[in-house]
TrEMBL record:
Gene3D superfamilies: 3.30.450.40, Phosphoenolpyruvate-binding domains, Phosphohistidine domain, PtsI, HPr-binding domain
Protein encoded by which gene: ptsP
Species annotation: Novosphingobium mangrovi (ex Hu et al. 2023)
Homology family: Belongs to the PEP-utilizing enzyme family.
Domain GAF as annotated: residue spans: 25-170
Domain of life: Bacteria
Name this protein carries in UniProt: phosphoenolpyruvate--protein phosphotransferase
Localisation per UniProt entry: Cytoplasm
Alphabetical UniProt keywords: Cytoplasm, Kinase, Magnesium, Metal-binding, Phosphotransferase system, Sugar transport, Transferase, Transport
Length: 758
């Protein structure tokens, strides 16, 4: 907040303090408030709209027709005022009528005014009104004026709430009729099943006083609160109970960085300078952070902002003395945690014996809390729209993070069916777990390699838990995605060495960093700063690494040093031409030569491989085959490129079928082209983790699969029941003369032989 905004806000707050202390009734206070704001900002119009009966009603105005007060009403989303309330964001317009959402109301007499600025009046994360100013002249309002309006809007939220002028919060946010069962859809962030009662993570922190009596005293309260918060974060980071050296440690390190951010501290102190109490200043900055979050398209940057909000919640509880969260109060029963979003440190505070699952209104697959939840083994469902409008504290919840669904207040029949499924799932997992030491050998004696995909240090434990043959794909980019800055070589080396140590004699295939597309890094951008229309086919994966050679050099050196005395398997992603492989390999060979000169311990052997994701590469495998040791088919990207169908687009789901004759014939041709070579061919991707699709791959002659750890048991079970010769013969026939629906044909064939048990 600039000094001009501080002065303007302080002048207005002084006037508002006198108004609030007066014995006027609520309407008279609002009438005085618009006059105070209008005079302080030299505004010709100042108006206050409040939420009543679900509509935004004009409650007070300076400059508009008084006859419109309590007459003009706008729905949420209607007009400029309704848009501000709906999106909880600020509008600053030189010409209001030019805005597409402008709605003219003749009774207000506002036709002579052109410029408009409006800010939401926010109460507990929802808009309860709008404060707006207007001028005859066409101009955009200065930042100092907008900041002053935002500060005043915060004070108004307390005034109008205490006066009972707005809809009751429970009435506005939760329909009392919502007692029936509800099914809420979301995004599976951490898979799993869970049952428990709904517990809201964040108890309400009520701010009793907005305007400061002693600015210096408020500043000291904030300083002490920051000290206490940082002490908590440092202690928490040192007491994480789920292993040493996991990716969650890097998450907490980034989290600690935010706790010590000087810019955040400065903004809170500036809000105190404007005349706010410590609590109000923290809330003021937090509201602005939320508004910024709504404008951020970059998922990673948004996740960083969520971390900052998590810290702000913690700081607010400390400074107000209302420290208790659902975690500190203790979980009495099995619980499903409900939150708009959640910070990683706050998740760590919960009793893992009672916390069975988490449901978030927001969240993303790469968010920090998801990484920590995965390490804790807690299923998470995210992006559940309207979550807090459907769930009450204490409601029974059935969380199905396998199917991306949560059932609220389920019927007895739904509970019985879920518990039966849950029990069956446990039994099935127990059967699969018992196969840990069983080798995947077909009925006719062919040994199939079943490996796992991984990307986090904590994933390595799944090797022993599943009895997998190794790691067929270690996604090195995960370390980059959870870091606030580019990971240093030493950090990369430490991670790769730890992974190899944990794997022991089992092979690990490291895929070089695959960033870009849907895995953007805030600290690594296009040089031209422009976005891409088709990021999945753009500046990503090996293309980034070859353009920014330093990135690949550092990773090559880290991998070579980590693998000293052992075999190193390295794989390059998104190779489209053999020359791309040649250039990438040359980077590794250059670093190998450097390490040899410096007498460092070198890998005993280096096996180079590529991922076949770009169809063009299949036409040049005869050129590439003599240069590589192995080839992994990345079915996720390959299939969407073959079908020109974005795999994330639900409208194209039917076109994205792994059992289409087109994809199976393509894979068969790849296998055939490598027959007689020394290239080990396999598949890494979701296709290999599904029983019917895995059966098809076996029929094509693919004997190495790399899949999610959760799928290892079921695929081992499938392999043991499969006659390889029989499925190979059937596949030859189906691909020679494809049936009308190959999926249905295969399903019937497999079911008749007892191969589909889930």
């Amino acid at each position: 907040m600039t000094s001009g905004a501080v002065d303007a806000a302080r002048n207005i707050l002084t006037g508002l303090h006198e108004v609030m202390a007066s014995r006027q009734h609520a309407q008279a206070k609002l009438n005085t408030v618009v006059e105070v704001i209008g005079e302080s900002l030299h505004s010709e119009v100042c108006s206050i709209y409040l939420l009543r009966e679900g509509m935004l009603e004009l409650f007070a105005t300076r400059g508009l027709a008084q006859e419109a007060v309590h007459v003009t009403r706008l729905a949420i989303g209607e007009g400029l005022v309704g848009t501000i309330a709906e999106k909880i964001e600020t509008l600053n317009l030189a010409e209001a009528a030019a805005h597409p959402d402008f709605s003219y109301r003749p009774e207000t007499g506002e036709e002579k005014f052109h410029s408009f600025a409006g800010v939401p009046i926010v109460r507990r994360e929802r808009a309860v009104g709008v404060l707006g100013v207007q001028h005859v002249e066409r101009r955009r309002y200065e930042e100092v004026e907008i900041e002053a309006l935002q500060t005043v809007a915060m004070v108004l939220s307390e005034l109008i709430t205490n006066a009972g002028l707005i809809d009751d919060e429970d009435t506005a946010s939760l329909d009392p009729a919502h007692n029936a069962p509800e099914q809420l859809r979301g995004l599976s962030l951490v898979k799993g099943l869970a049952q428990g009662t709904a517990v809201y993570h964040q108890p309400r922190v009520t701010i009793e006083h907005i305007v400061a009596q002693d600015t210096e005293a408020e500043r000291q309260r904030v300083i002490l609160a920051f000290d206490k918060m940082r002490e908590q974060i440092d202690r928490m980071a040192g007491q994480a109970e789920f292993g040493v050296g996991g990716e969650h440690e890097e998450v907490l390190e980034t989290y600690r960085m935010f706790a010590y951010d000087e810019g955040w501290t400065r903004r809170i102190n500036e809000a105190i300078d404007s005349g706010l109490t410590a609590e109000a200043a923290i809330e003021r900055v937090q509201q602005r952070t939320r508004m910024r979050m709504r404008q951020i398209d970059d998922a990673l940057l948004a996740d960083r902002m969520h971390d900052l909000e998590d810290l702000a919640n913690r700081l607010l509880r400390i400074v107000s003395g209302q420290i208790g969260t659902a975690a500190s109060l203790g979980l009495r029963n099995d619980a499903i945690l409900i939150a708009r979003n959640l910070g990683p440190a706050e998740l760590l505070e919960y009793d893992k014996r009672r916390l069975k699952g988490v449901v978030l209104e927001e969240g993303s697959l790469t968010s920090h809390v998801v990484i920590v939840a995965r390490a804790m083994g807690i299923p998470v469902l995210g992006r559940v729209r309207g979550l807090r409008g459907y769930v009450r504290e204490g409601d029974m919840l059935l969380l199905d993070a396998e199917q991306g669904m949560a059932t609220v207040r389920p019927s007895p029949g739904a509970i019985e069916a879920f518990e039966a499924r849950f029990a069956k799932n446990r039994e099935k997992q127990a059967v699969y777990a018992s196969m840990r030491d069983v080798e995947p050998v077909t009925k006719d004696g062919t040994r199939i390699q079943v490996r796992i995909n991984a990307g986090l240090r904590d994933d390595i434990a799944n090797l022993s838990l599943t009895g997998a043959d190794g790691i067929g794909l270690f996604r090195t980019e995960f370390q980059f995605l959870v870091s606030a800055t580019l990971p240093a070589r030493e950090r990369q080396t430490r991670l790769y060495r730890d992974v190899l140590d944990a794997a022991g004699s089992k092979p690990v295939v490291f895929r070089t960093v695959d960033i870009g597309g849907d895995k953007t890094l805030p600290y690594l951008r296009h040089d031209d700063g422009e976005g891409e229309e088709n990021p999945a086919m753009g500046w990503r994966a090996l293309r980034v690494a070859l353009e920014r050679e330093g990135l690949l050099k550092v990773q090559a050196r880290a991998l070579l040093e980590a693998a000293g005395g052992r075999e190193l398997n390295v794989m390059f992603p998104l190779v489209a031409e053999p020359w791309e492989f040649d250039e990438a390999k040359a980077v590794f060979e250059g670093q190998l030569a450097y390490l040899r000169k410096t007498k460092r311990m070198l890998p005993e052997a280096i096996r180079y491989g590529v991922m076949l994701e770009v169809p063009a590469l299949a036409e040049q495998l005869d050129i590439l085959a003599p240069k590589i040791s192995f080839l992994s088919i990345g079915t996720n990207d390959l299939t969407q490129f073959l079908f020109a169908a974005d795999r994330s687009n639900p409208k194209l789901a039917e076109r994205y079928d792994w059992l289409s004759p087109a994809i199976l014939r393509f894979l068969r041709r790849v296998v055939t082209s490598l027959e007689g070579s020394n290239v080990d061919i396999g598949v890494c991707g979701e296709m290999g983790g599904r029983r019917l699709e895995a059966l098809a791959l076996l029929g094509l002659g693919i004997h190495r699969l790399s899949i999610t750890p959760a799928s290892v048991g079921r695929i081992k079970d499938l392999v043991g029941k499969t006659d390889l010769g029989e499925i190979e013969a059937a596949m030859r026939g189906w691909l020679a003369e494809p049936p009308a629906n190959l999926r249905e044909t295969m399903h019937a064939w497999a079911s008749a032989r007892g191969l589909l048990t889930d």
